[in-house]
């Protein structure tokens, strides 16, 4: 009888331990999801960090629905790298905040090209505080279903 009771106790311990591990993993996943969604003002620049971020997001972009990269110095090169992500068929990004990211005409052209290729998913794009110039505004107005505010 003692061995049987021991087995039951061990089974209970393992089940309880797995429950705790599962909850810890779940909380960590929520933390990571929140962290990736909110990268505003994180000193991400067009040199280096943006390339790493873009590469990481390309590995499995289908779960990411919103991304806040506001107040980072992405510049045209960084936004062009993010635009490549938007062109991927499995990219489900619906909200993208690129406000105050030092984006100029070239970056706007890259975004417009990406939105034309995958316009069904991105429904909100925040570009406040950037310098589109006349060409950048023109590029965005040529995107079907694009409404500038």
UniProtKB/TrEMBL annotation:
Protein name per the record:
Uncharacterized protein
Recorded hits in SUPFAM superfamilies, A to Z, give: RNI-like
InterPro entries the UniProt entry points to: Leu-rich_rpt, LRR_dom_sf, NLR
Coiled-coil regions, chain positions = none
* UniProt keyword terms in alphabetical order: Leucine-rich repeat, Repeat
């Amino acid at each position: 009888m003692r061995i049987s009771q021991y087995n039951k106790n061990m089974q209970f311990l393992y089940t309880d331990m797995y429950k705790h591990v599962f909850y810890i993993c779940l909380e960590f996943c929520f933390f990571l999801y929140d962290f990736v969604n909110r990268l505003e003002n994180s000193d991400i620049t067009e040199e280096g960090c943006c390339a790493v971020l873009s590469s990481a997001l390309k590995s499995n972009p289908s779960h990411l629905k919103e991304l806040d990269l506001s107040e980072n110095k992405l510049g045209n090169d960084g936004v062009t790298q993010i635009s490549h992500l938007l062109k991927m068929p499995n990219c489900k990004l619906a909200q993208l905040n690129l406000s105050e990211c030092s984006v100029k005409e070239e970056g706007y052209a890259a975004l417009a090209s990406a939105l034309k290729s995958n316009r069904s998913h991105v429904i909100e794009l925040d570009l406040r505080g950037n310098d589109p110039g006349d060409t950048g505004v023109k590029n965005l107005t040529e995107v079907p279903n694009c409404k500038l505010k």
